[in-house]
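TA notes, week 10

Several of you asked for a full example with nothing omitted. So below is the full record: structure tokens for the whole chain, then the designed sequence directly under it. When grading your own attempts, check the secondary structure regions first.
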């Protein structure tokens, strides 16, 4: 799963940042993908935990499914959320692992990081932090986390080998992965592989 030679990774990252910066600024705009609190409820997020999350975060939620459907996170766990966006998944996870556990969200879009930090302050969730970084080169030491979660992010990255290598590197022995993402059942045409809009949306 090497980098697709037909897509310039730097251009793709720039377009992804533009898309998700737009989602952070204009959450009511029509996007090609579903967004918001109603969507999170539709895909089965735990409503009691979701109810505590400020609209600041949830209005820009754009997950593709519910990574917590694979099971709740154990209290006390140290969790990494790859592509944390406006913070909805991180803030759900922070409630699950409290009071001793911690959650770190990592995202490459500055506007989303601002929203996530603001939402955490609004709800008084002190066991969560949000840092800038990219999934292919995570800014954390080896064996830092008990659990890695991610929602609708890995499909956007051409070099999936790099992402999964990083996940394995930062996971502690016996750690777990809870990923919700898009998968393909049929091969993608060469023309579609070159269509940057299909990558970003």
């Amino acid at each position: 799963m090497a980098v697709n030679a037909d897509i310039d990774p730097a251009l793709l990252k720039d377009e992804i940042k533009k898309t998700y910066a737009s989602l952070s600024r204009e959450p009511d705009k029509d996007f090609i993908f579903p967004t918001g609190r109603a969507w999170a409820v539709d895909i089965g997020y735990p409503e009691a935990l979701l109810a505590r999350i400020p609209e600041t975060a949830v209005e820009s939620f754009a997950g593709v499914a519910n990574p917590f459907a694979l099971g709740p996170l154990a209290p006390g766990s140290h969790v990494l959320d790859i592509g944390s966006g406006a913070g909805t998944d991180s803030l759900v996870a922070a409630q699950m692992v409290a009071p001793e556990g911690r959650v770190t969200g990592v995202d490459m879009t500055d506007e989303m990081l601002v929203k996530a930090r603001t939402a955490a302050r609004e709800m008084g969730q002190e066991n969560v932090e949000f840092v800038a970084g990219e999934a292919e080169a995570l800014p954390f030491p080896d064996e830092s986390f008990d659990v890695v979660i991610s929602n609708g992010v890995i499909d956007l990255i051409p070099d999936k080998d790099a992402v999964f290598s990083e996940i394995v590197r930062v996971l502690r022995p016996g750690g777990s992965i809870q990923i919700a993402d898009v998968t393909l059942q049929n091969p993608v045409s060469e023309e579609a592989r070159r269509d940057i809009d299909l990558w970003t949306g």
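Strands lie at 78-82, 102-107, 128-132, 145-151, 171-180. Use that as a sanity check on your answer.
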